[in-house]
Every structure is written in structure tokens, then in C-alpha cells.
Specification:
mainly beta, 7-stranded mixed beta sheet, 4-stranded antiparallel beta sheet, about 50% strand
Length: about 130
């Protein structure tokens, strides 16, 4: 079992930065591909970024490429999402998800992920 807890969300002005953290419990997390998704009420969940477990390969949605960086620290059982040059359209609840053994990497639909966190709100003001 893997439990995920996101943190680091908040209110920031456009152009600002935030770093989200996804802290995992469970010894198998180091063998999980991890993804970040976001969702706005009334809209479908949107893929943001993913990182593999085997070689730290990364994959990004076009909308965040060049602005967001996903990374992982297996010693801390944590995956990060560094978000720079934030825009009002980045406002959403951000979720991290873990895909055990990364069988679906890079899954952008969310269907391959076995575990999900509870989400953290990011609000970008204009």
C-alpha cells in the first residue's frame, strides 16, 4: 500500500512560483512512476507531469512544459512539482498519483495510477 499526501499549495500572483510536495508512505514508492494531475470544478482532470521510477525520465503536458519541473527524492519518499511563471489558468486542485512499477508510464489519462492523494489547492491571481 502507498499513501500520498500533497502539500505546498496556496495563493500566488501571476508570474510567481510554488513548489508542491507529494510525500509517500510505503516501501514500494521508489518503484512507482508518479504523476501530477490537476482539476478545476466542473472540468475534467488534466495531466500535468510524470516521472518514471527507473531512470527519472520525465514527461510534461504542453501547457506546462518549460515552466514546471517534476523531480523525486526516493530517500525522502517525496516527489516535487516546481511551478514557475504561474498563470491564472494554472489555478486548480493538484493531485499526485502513483503507478506501481510504472507499467503505464507515461500515463496521461490517470487510469494506470494505483494510488492518489487528497489534493492541494493552487490559486494564481491575475
Amino acid at each position: 500500500q502507498v499513501q500520498l499526501v500533497e502539500s505546498g499549495g496556496g495563493l500566488v500572483q501571476a508570474g510567481g512560483s510554488l513548489r508542491l510536495s507529494c510525500k509517500a508512505s510505503g516501501r514500494t514508492f521508489s518503484r512507482c512512476a508518479t504523476g501530477w494531475f490537476r482539476q478545476v470544478p466542473g472540468k475534467e482532470r488534466e495531466f500535468v507531469a510524470a516521472i518514471s521510477w527507473s531512470d527519472d525520465n520525465t514527461y510534461y503536458a504542453d501547457s506546462v512544459k518549460g515552466r514546471f519541473t517534476i523531480s523525486r527524492d526516493n530517500a525522502k519518499n517525496t516527489v516535487y512539482l516546481e511551478m514557475n511563471s504561474l498563470k491564472p489558468e494554472d489555478t486548480a486542485v493538484y493531485y499526485c498519483a502513483a503507478d506501481l512499477y510504472g507499467l503505464g508510464y507515461p500515463d496521461i489519462t490517470g487510469e494506470a495510477y494505483d494510488y492518489w492523494g487528497q489534493g492541494t489547492q493552487v490559486t494564481v491571481s491575475s
